[in-house]
Amino acid sequence: MDEKKIQSKKTERSKSKTKSAKKSAPAAPKKNPQGDIVFALDIGTRTVVGVLAKKTPHGCKIIDIETVAHEKRSMSDGQIEDIKSVADDIKRVRRELENRRHIALTNVCIAAAGRALKTLRASWEYKLPEEKTITAEAIKAAELDAVRRTCASFSQKNDSAAFYCVGHSVVSLSLDGFKVQKPEGHRGERLTTEIIAAFLPAYVVDSLVAAVDAAHLEVSSLTLEPIAAMNAVIPQELRLINLALCDIGAGTSDVAVSRDGSVVAYGMATTAGDEITEALMRELLVDFNTAEMIKISSEKEITYKNILMIENKITRERVDQIIAPAAHDLAKVIAEEILTANATPPQAVFLVGGGSKLNGLAQMVADELDVDISRVITGSRETLRGIIAPEEMILGAEHSTPLGIAVSAGEGVSYDFTTITINGKKLRAPDTNRLTVFELLSVVKIKPENMLAGTGKTISFTLLGEKITLRGEPPKPSEIIVNGEPASLNTAVTKGDDVRVIPAEKGADGAAKLSDYFDMSEIKMFTVTLFGRKLRAGRFILLNGKETALDRRINDGDTVELSELETLGKLLAANDVSEGVLLNDKPADIDTLLKSGDIITYEFPPEGENSTPAPEPPKAPASKAPEPKPAAPKAAEAAATKAAASEKKPEHSSQNPTITVNGIQAEFPMRADGKPPIFLDVAKAFSENPTELLTHADTITVNGKIARLDEEIHNGDVIIIE
Questions:
Q1: Which candidate in 199, 225, 617, 639 could, as Cys together with 163 as Cys, close a disulfide (CB 3.0–4.6 Å)?
Q2: 624: pLDDT confidence band, cut at 50, 70 and 90?
Q3: How far, in Å, CA of 365 to CA of 496, rounded?
Q4: DSSP string, 517-544
Q5: What span, in angstroms and rounded, lies between the C-alpha atoms of 551 and 536?
Q6: Model pTM greater than 0.90?
């Protein structure tokens, strides 16, 4: 038989067997839904611990526990650095628990270490319903109101960075000014709730939740690690005693203190178990995992390989000697953090977490606090209260936090960091059962006062003797849209909502320019000579008594007048001149339009005088053209001097134009290429920094028109720079 046919038949038989095997293979058992089973996850610096539990009337029943060590140092001091790596470890924990218990896990409760922890203690008054006994719901509503108001207060004081509230404790309750332990069933008007709230930077929480998201789980609640550990080790009934709990992990040591029935303080230090491990790394030249193995080993003699691949042995006694300095430093930090939170040594101290198992640490802490060693206890199965677990299940100090997360789930106010879209950006917002648009404002750094705005400023000015008032425009109101519908600051928002918040805009101020009232193309200003005296002529504007031919903004309180001195008659009338005059040595009609450079003299000079000396200048009315004041005579003289000096010939060239600058005549030199000078040349003659001169000048004209920098200057031109 042909070899190809034989091979083809073999392939067909192989496919047939594969199909048959697939048909005969039993289907994978279907996983049950999670239901009311609590999945608690303690994401620590060295390990991820998953706990399955169920709430019962007798306590929290532990179903299963799974621990996975990070394969690499993907976390530091309780902060996630490699989100993908941590997500992979979470997936491993989830997969093991799902396979053993045939449960499809979808929701998880987590806790955050107190890295960069901040706290705020505050009291808030809550008005109770009239003529009704106080219910548990009213007490919870007052607590929730206190949490929201504390969060708002904290945001106002810390608006430079985003923080999330990750937990709180009720310190005390007062009914109408009197402290009460249990106000339920009483009557009153005002319930004051004093709380201490814990806040963590948004980046700490966001990275934690991001790792959970990447593991395809949904965060159902979040709390603070020391709060969780307190719930497992120091339940409510023990909090009348002044107790301190320190949860010592690999990266952080978190502290909580109870007194008078409440948790009254939290604290955190970034010194923890990793410092012990790193001491061994440096001394023994080993990697982190090997140092961890040596640290936790209970063997009297430990065999290991260093980074040089040399096998060594070390005794437990020698290990304790190496880590002793770091252990003493850790004990000192823990004691200092407890004293900072409690002011004095507490009546007893509970050390929990994996780091608490360090040999001799309890004695060191007792010595630092100056208390008897019997008052400092390391966590164990016996110290875990409210926990129901099989006898064969190994539980120790390292399980305090994950078991505490399970115990805390569903108790008190839930902190569900839900995803909400606001102004097109997805963010995680702390949901305290009644999250409103108002709470979101602080998350996106919009101040409440930005939601209100006023009308623009009104301005008033005098125009040609008439009072003009221009009112500001009305404000543009703020807009709040939730899922496409108009909403308010009190609108409740939930997971998945799309929120759009547009702050209000203040109305534009009343505003006006000269061009709003005058045709600026008809405005011109130039200089003429009347009986030897330089005067402004033309049709120009007086803004607060100052001449201008340029468009200007009118400000509140300004006075605007119009000076109309275009004709010979108007100029003479304004200066109280009625005698016969000559215009440029010729008789002229009073309706003759004046132009720049015109010279007006007496037709018949007064007795004893010739036609050139000027009489005593008449006083111009305020509304007319005032006597011009040369803005910069020294500069003009300097310009003339400079121009004259630049001409090297002993006699001036007849080609050099004679111009008038701010009322002073000067001969200005032609350019080196023989072309006429330009306006910028004149400005340079005035100042070494012509840009600054022109920037600060109010009037810049050539023959009454706005000057251009490249405009050529010719004989007889009149330039004003003021």
A1: 199
A2: very low
A3: 48
A4: TS-GGG-EEEEEEETTEEEEEEEEEEET
A5: 18
A6: no
